[in-house]
Specification:
6 strands, globular, six-stranded mixed sheet, about 15% strand
Length: about 280
C-alpha cells in the first residue's frame, strides 16, 4: 500500500499537460496500482496472511430473527457461530477468532461491523437462517442456501470503514509522508475505489467458495447475491452473510438444529476459508 501512495503522490501533475496524455497516464497508473494493491492490502513488508476473522451470530436477545416450528434463528446462528469459531481455531491456530456475541444478547448491527473494523479483521462472516413469510403459498417447501455480499447501492458507506481498517491510513507518520488524507483529493478517491473493488471481489470469491462447499454436501444452491445489508456495507474488509438454511422448512429446521447438520455447515465454511486462503495469501 505504501508503494501505491508513493507512486501517486510523487507522480507528475499530468492534468496540466494535454488531456489525452493525462488520461493515458492516469489509466496506466491505475493498472499499476491495481497490480500492487493485490499484493499489498493489509501488509507493508511481510506477505499477507489472514490473521483475524470475525464471526457474527445473527440476531440475539430481543431480536429473535426468524421463527421455526421448534427453534429460533437467534439460537441456531449462535450455536453454528460458536462451532465455527472453534473449528477455525483448531484448523488454523494462527488465526484469531472474534465473536460479535457468545450468548443470547442483543447487539445492534452497527456494533457488529464496528467491532470488525476495530480489530482490523481480515474477514467478516455473518451467520443467518432464512425463512419465507407466513402467507407465502409454498412457505414450507422452499429450502436451500444462499450467501450475500454488499450491493452497490450503499457502497459509499464503506469509505469510513476502510479508513478505520486500512493499515496505510492508520500509520502515525501518514500525514508527514503523504501530506494528510483529503477526502476530496482524486488520489485518495483512486485508492478508495481500488480497495472497495478489491474487497468486493474477495467477498464474492469467499461467498462462491462457500456455496460450492454447500453444493458438494448436497444442499440446494440459491446462489451468491448482492444486497444492501448494513453490516456488509460498513465492513472495511471482505464480508459475507450466509443463510445456512430455511428455518421455515421443517426438514431444514431439523437439519439446522441437529449436531450433524451444524457440524456439516461448519465443515463447509472452514473448507471454503481454506480454499480462500490458498487464493489470496502470498507464499
Amino acid at each position: 500500500m505504501n508503494i501505491i501512495f508513493a507512486m501517486i503522490k510523487y507522480s507528475p501533475k499530468l492534468m496540466k499537460i494535454n488531456p489525452l496524455r493525462s488520461l493515458l497516464s492516469y489509466f496506466s497508473l491505475f493498472l499499476t496500482s491495481l497490480l500492487f494493491l493485490s499484493f499489498t492490502i493489509n501488509s507493508t513488508s511481510a506477505p499477507y496472511r489472514i490473521k483475524t476473522i470475525v464471526i457474527d451470530a445473527g440476531h440475539g436477545g430481543k431480536a429473535g430473527g426468524a421463527v421455526g416450528k421448534h427453534s429460533t434463528e437467534k439460537k441456531i446462528t449462535l450455536e453454528v457461530a460458536l462451532r465455527l469459531g472453534k473449528a477455525i481455531q483448531r484448523t488454523y491456530p494462527d488465526i484469531k477468532v472474534v465473536y460479535t456475541r457468545t450468548s443470547d444478547i442483543f447487539v445492534p448491527n452497527e456494533n457488529r461491523t464496528n467491532l470488525a473494523n476495530r480489530v482490523k479483521a481480515d474477514l467478516f462472516i455473518s451467520i443467518h437462517c432464512n425463512s419465507m413469510p407466513i402467507n407465502h403459498s409454498n412457505r414450507t417447501g422452499i429450502k436451500g442456501v444462499e450467501t450475500f455480499v454488499a450491493g452497490f447501492g450503499r457502497i459509499d458507506e464503506q469509505d469510513v470503514a476502510i479508513r478505520e481498517n486500512a493499515d496505510i491510513l492508520l500509520e502515525k507518520d501518514y500525514k508527514s509522508k503523504y501530506g494528510g488524507y483529503d477526502p476530496k483529493d482524486p488520489e485518495s478517491m483512486i485508492i478508495f475505489s481500488l480497495m472497495k473493488n478489491q474487497f468486493r471481489d474477495q467477498s464474492i470469491k469467499l461467498a462462491t467458495l462457500m456455496q460450492n462447499e454447500y453444493i458438494a454436501a448436497g444442499r440446494i444452491n440459491r446462489g451468491v447475491k448482492e444486497q444492501n445489508i448494513l453490516i456488509l456495507q460498513r465492513a472495511g474488509m471482505p464480508a459475507v452473510l450466509t443463510e445456512v438454511g430455511f428455518i421455515s422448512n421443517l426438514e431444514e429446521e431439523r437439519y439446522l438444529m441437529s449436531e450433524a447438520g451444524q457440524n456439516e455447515i461448519v465443515q463447509n465454511i472452514v473448507a471454503a476459508i481454506g480454499n480462500y486462503k490458498k487464493q489470496v495469501e502470498l507464499r
